[in-house]
Amino acid sequence: MSNQLDERLQTELDRINVEEQRNDRPYFDISFIKNYPGLFSLMWILFVLTMALLLYSDSFGTIEYVVCILIFAVCNFFFFFHVNPSYKAKDIDKGAWKNCYTGDWYMEVHVRDAFVDELLGSAILTESEKTRLNEMRARKGYLYFADIYRLRH
After folding, report:
1. Nearest Cα to 126, choosing from 143, 151, 146?
2. Domains of the chain: which residue ranges?
3. Contact (CB, 8 A) for 144 and 106
4. pLDDT for res 80
5. CA-based nearest residue to 13, from 75, 90, 72
């Protein structure tokens, strides 16, 4: 019985993943420049000043210059890529590494009313679980994925 509920939750999460284009792949994204133009400009100004200091100083050579450029490139790499992680039912109430990035999404993403109605009309849930689900829905006005998941776990 629990597997049926988990499978149904995952089916709904898969629908959301497709709708929101959540596929765990990194995408190049320049929104960092649009959202933080001052920070981006300051970053480049300080980089140019650092390079000028390295070139001006007799203590530093080509190796230090190249290492500084590589460090700058690697650090900037993280600003320009965005990952839209997919939702998985197995991550609910787990301390997954992905949850560090997405947060506790299962306590933030509301479940569609049509999905809740479908669950209530099916034989997947017992009568006591349906009653608990209806009570939570009436009290809060909405349900999270964790609310449904915790009926059985």
Report:
1. 151
2. 1-22+87-153, 26-83
3. yes
4. 83
5. 90
